[in-house]
Amino acid sequence: MGETVTLHAGFMGLQSNVQIQWFHRSVDANIIIAQSQVLRGEIKTDYSDRFRDRLQLDRQTGSITIRNISITDSGIYRLRINGEISEKRFRVTVYVLSAAVPAPLIGKKQSHSAGSGSSGPKCSVVCSVENGRDVTLSWYKGKEILNQTSSPDLNINLSLSLEIEDQDNNTYNCVADNPVSNQTTQLNVTELCNKSGSTSGHTGNC
């Protein structure tokens, strides 16, 4: 948010007499934001009121640059050259800096005794993070993703459980991320699972 973004049309040396139109479709509108054409031998370029002071069209390439971009500028941008002869689409999503995802927290869950078929005592932990726009929460074993969750309900916290052996020596990380940032918290097996493992009187704990 507040940055400068260029949507590259990918053309090189467009003919001087082409008509260029840029459209923006947001949640509640679909408008022409820039239009450039040759009228009576002169190039005439018009911008919509909303973008007038922030938009710059390059007639050589068809690209546009948006200055001081904001959340309301998110949406689909569509470029047309000479009507519908050549058309390109761009999806733009703008995030505010405060949308940086917080670090996830890992805590211990109550776990049951291992079954007869289990190789040893189990430790159950849960990772949680405050939900936000496009936030995803994941458990990793080394570089291998084990499970993942997300939710469109921003009023809840995301959480993921993980069950491992008490003496597991693998590295486990819980990762929270969105399109602008990511945060990783490493599971400390010794602290959460092994610390009280030899202490009596902790039924149900690792």
UniProtKB/TrEMBL annotation:
<protein>
    <submittedName>
        <fullName>Natural killer cell receptor 2B4-like</fullName>
    </submittedName>
</protein>
<dbReference type="InterPro" id="IPR013106">
    <property type="entry name" value="Ig_V-set"/>
</dbReference>
<feature type="domain" description="Ig-like">
    <location>
        <begin position="102"/>
        <end position="190"/>
    </location>
</feature>
<dbReference type="Pfam" id="PF07686">
    <property type="entry name" value="V-set"/>
</dbReference>
<dbReference type="InterPro" id="IPR036179">
    <property type="entry name" value="Ig-like_dom_sf"/>
</dbReference>
<dbReference type="Pfam" id="PF13895">
    <property type="entry name" value="Ig_2"/>
</dbReference>
<dbReference type="InterPro" id="IPR007110">
    <property type="entry name" value="Ig-like_dom"/>
</dbReference>
<dbReference type="InterPro" id="IPR013783">
    <property type="entry name" value="Ig-like_fold"/>
</dbReference>
